Automatic annotation (TrEMBL):
Name of protein: DUF1230 domain-containing protein
Keywords for this protein: Membrane, Transmembrane, Transmembrane helix
Record flagged with keyword DNA repair: no
PANTHER family: PROTEIN CONSERVED IN THE GREEN LINEAGE AND DIATOMS 27, CHLOROPLASTIC (PTHR34214:SF3), PTHR34214
Transmembrane residue ranges: 45-66, 72-93, 147-165
InterPro entries registered for this protein in UniProt: CGLD27-like
Any Pfam family: CGLD27-like
Length: 166
């Protein structure tokens, strides 16, 4: 029954929300969000470490290692988190876009270019399927990203408190 509705869909294959979701889920950057918590956190720590490579020399110019090691460590850790924040923002925006395309009852699509856009109303069976995907697969991913943001804010607050105590 779903297949017959999909075959009548005027939206080009690459612009159909389900295909966009599958493509996003398999892309190298976004698939990390679907990993287990342990693997996901490991990837985030790797991203932080790579960002730290760029942040540490900047922190060293303000807080020389031999004079102020604790402030150097805190400022380089905070600077390293900038890369993680940018990464998480990109992940959140990508998954939010797919969530809105799947959840929406009407899909905007372009047939051959930006000048000939159209809207297509999803049949109820397609809409139900897409909303189930949002509920059971995309919402947990967005919650994970939000929770990671909250963890970073908590670490930043803890680092600020330690900074004030030094």
């Amino acid at each position: 029954m779903i297949r017959s509705s999909v075959f009548n869909c005027p939206v080009p294959t690459e612009q159909q929300p389900l295909n966009e979701y599958e493509e996003l889920k398999s892309s190298w950057l976004f698939r990390d969000c679907t990993l287990t918590w342990r693997k996901y956190i490991t990837k985030i720590i790797w991203a932080w470490g790579l960002s730290l490579i760029f942040a540490a020399p900047v922190a060293a110019t303000s807080f020389p290692l031999h004079k102020d090691l604790s402030h150097f460590l805190l400022s380089s850790a905070a600077g390293g988190s900038v890369g993680v924040i940018l990464l998480l923002t990109r992940l959140y925006l990508g998954w939010s876009y797919i969530r809105s395309r799947l959840y929406s009852p009407i899909i905007f699509y372009e047939e051959s270019g930006w000048y000939d856009g159209h809207n297509w109303a999803k049949p109820q069976d397609i809409l139900d399927r897409d909303r189930l995907i949002v509920s059971y697969e995309i919402r947990p991913i967005l919650q994970r990203i939000k929770l990671t943001f909250v963890g970073l804010v908590g670490l930043f607050i803890a680092g600020s408190i330690v900074w004030q105590l030094l």
